[in-house]
Each structure stands twice: as structure tokens, then as C-alpha cells.
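2024-03-11 09:14:02 DEBUG pipeline.ingest accepted 1 chain
2024-03-11 09:14:02 DEBUG pipeline.ingest length=171
2024-03-11 09:14:03 DEBUG pipeline.predict start
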Amino acid sequence: MSNLHFKFLSLGYKFRDLRSRETILKEVNIKPGDHVLDFGCGPGSYILPVAKMVGESGKVYALDIQPMAIESVRKIIKRESLQNVESILSGHKTGLPDESVDVVLLYDTFHSFCDPDPILQELHRVLTPEGILSFSDHHLTGDEIISEITQKKMFDLKQKGDKTYSFKKVK
């Protein structure tokens, strides 16, 4: 994605984010002490609310392939003095240990993946056995979402919320 395209998307996110991110995140049941990966974090719309939800004992990893997105996240980290947030510039390799993440947020990015299989494999690898993949993508129908995420037998649908789909890791 070009820098210009990213800036345009970021402007759109500012309007989208006038609605509370907490409303969406309530469906995920993030708890203090959780480790959360915001995969495809974009300009960091979820970083601050998630950092508050996981508290000092938790950790937030914000991953994006776009350097401008990571720079935006780093500005949030600095401005808010967040000690529990780490940014990761990567296409899909997180660099995180196996089974180290309690919740993955995969919001409004899946439709843009050319090859989602390596990404889903990486998310499966880093999720704890009881971990949750929280998914939302307004470019896909509910049936498409369920089919795309469950077809490789790595994830099963746990719950459909008003704004998100929660998938559990298949062992």
C-alpha cells in the first residue's frame, strides 16, 4: 500500500472511530493480564482501549506491514506513555513465541490478503490453546467469514456477536 493510500485510509478511520472501539471490544472479553495481538493494526485505533483493558500486567502487540502504520502506533505509545504496547513491522511473521497470545484482533484486513493461509497459520501458532481470534471485516458476508476462517480446520466458530465473530483455536 502506498503512503498516500495509507493516509487516505487513516482519514477514513478517524471518521469510523467516532464510534467507540470499546463497544466492539466488549464482545471479545479481554481481561487484565491478557496478551493481545492487533494484526493489521493500521493507525492504531484499538491500541489505547486494548492497552487499558489488559492493564499493566498485560501486553498489546500492534503488527502491520505498513511503516506509516507502525509510526502512528509509536506516536500513540509515546504520547500516552504506554509501557504495555509493542509495535511489530511485518507482513505476517510476528516473531512471538508459540502459544503466547490470548486474543488476536483481525479487523478489516482479511479481505486484502493475497494469500491468507500463512497468516492464519501464524495466528494459530501464537494463540494459546484457549485463545480467541476475534474477526470483523465489513467487506465479507457472515457466510464468507465463517467459511474462510474455518476451511483449513485451524479454527472453529465459537460465537457470533453484533460486531465480531469469535473463533477458537482447533488443537
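2024-03-11 09:14:41 DEBUG pipeline.report The chain has one domain: 3-11+30-169.
2024-03-11 09:14:41 DEBUG pipeline.predict end
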